[in-house]
């Protein structure tokens, strides 16, 4: 990740998802940022499916080459809104559709309770596949971090 100019992102507020946070851990070029509750979540279309808007504090890991960040420093985490919607799709929408398709197809060949079990069990290989592909997702979902200067 790179250090970016905060003022350039203030003008792009409609295309980004911004969260304020505090750096809670630094290790080997990876920053762990504890995200605060965000007022921008109220206007977001994906807030019902997003895990960040539900609680007061979440943590996110951000890889960075910049060593100027310090522990307990206030920062702003920025993600392109399009990537946020992609994340919601892969975490919530696609698995839901997958369960429904497997349920409907398997209910034609099996008893109802067996079809239900198969539909639920199909999530295990799906989420395992996501886990195996986590490095690909890390490359796709690039998060920027900015120092707050107030």
UniProtKB/TrEMBL annotation:
Q: Where are the transmembrane segments?
A: 87-107, 113-133
Q: A Pfam family name for this chain?
A: RseC_MucC
What InterPro entries would the database entry show?
SigmaE_reg_RseC_MucC (IPR007359)
* Keywords for this protein: Membrane, Transmembrane, Transmembrane helix
Q: What is this protein called?
A: SoxR reducing system RseC family protein
Q: Specify the domain of life of the species encoding this protein.
A: Bacteria
